[in-house]
Amino acid sequence: MDPVRRQYESYPYPERDPADEGARLIEGSPSHPVEIDHFLYQGRRDWSRPFRALVAGGGTGDGLIMLAVKLADIGCPAEITYLDMSQASRAVAEARAQARGLGSIRFVTGDLLTAPEFGPFDYIDCCGVLHHLADPDAGFRALAQALAPGGGIGLMVYAPYGRTGVYPLQAAFGRLLRDDPPEDRVRLARQVLDGLPESNWFPRNPLLGDHRASDAGLYDLLLHSRDRPYTVAELGGALERAGLGAVSFLEPGRYDPLRYLPRDPGLAARVKALEPLERAALAEQLAGNMKTHIVYAGRPGEGGEAQPGRLQAVPHLKGVAPAALARQVATKGGVSIDTDGLGYAIELPRAAAPLIGAIDGARSLGEIATAAGLDWLAFGAAWGPVHRGLCGFNLLHYSQGARR
Ligand SMILES: C[S@@+](CC[C@H](N)C(=O)[O-])C[C@H]1O[C@@H](n2cnc3c(N)ncnc32)[C@H](O)[C@@H]1O
Predict the structure, then answer these.
(1) Measured from the CB, is residue 119 less than 6 Å from ligand 1?
(2) 31 CB under 6 A from ligand 1?
(3) pLDDT of residue 309
């Protein structure tokens, strides 16, 4: 059996218990319908129309369940296809869907390269999969071929610098434990980890913790037989070879090199002269803390990201209550967030606090402007920094029909 398949039959990842479905919904990026709308459909998709989605390498079902639940919540006539080569992972994902009474999912056990046979799709989720393929370019191509016109993809691939220490250990464990059965490899790897010298980069990297969470986490992080991380530049190249282009990396603000450089007009001018992908590549090199890249991508010239200049655009906040955020902006003039060991300050004008407080996922920008007594021009001036600051950290999206 293919060693990657053998791994996911023994250790479905991430480890999930279908009994937990009654207690919580796991949400993340990519693939929340509000995000899909924002990044791929300009925030204007009509969700009463059918939506065909593929969750490629769906694993134990995190992205699948979130997508299916959120689409059911808004009454979208969705057809979702789950495709994974691991039967053990599918059993977990299927049990989770059953626990929630989700009927919109077709489960397929098979190779991601067969994706076009089940399409076309308006959206494809593919998280943590392409970097494990023997020929990742063939995987990128298969997903691109499975896309309907105007459709888009939400991807996550591993990134090298934030995973500093992982790859030498993967190679060492490959050399040392190659012929052992999976359970023995886990036991022996834990023994080796406990005795690693202080000089090894792995225990020195504070960003890595999956190995402590579960055996499946340890296996995925350190015992993988096929795992190639992507720099921004490499990911951009893989997308381009498949006829796709990045719409946005998440969080966009983390991919702005100016965040990591001293304020200096000369340096800023050099950054400005770079192409968008080169800028993102520079940010990755300077930040050093990116463990993954999450990117929305589509065919160049199709769909694309929502813009703030529309009266009908409906803003949604992610993971923060509008009133609480408005209070913080009014008192502190911004917010700060911590991601992968680094704090990022988001400056927001105090005067914009009432506008932020008016976001409820239903009112349009035009309605918020009218309620605030601002004409469209004055509103645009006040809203611009809110849009840039919050979209920059994936805290604000636009969708006329989807809900958080
Ligand atoms: C790290 S898990 C990620 C699961 C899920 N996407 C998530 O984010 O939670 C990778 C999954 O990809 C599947 N996979 C790897 N290579 C595949 C291939 N060539 N075809 C189909 N599935 C594959 C594995 O079986 C595994 O379930």
Answers:
(1) no
(2) no
(3) 85
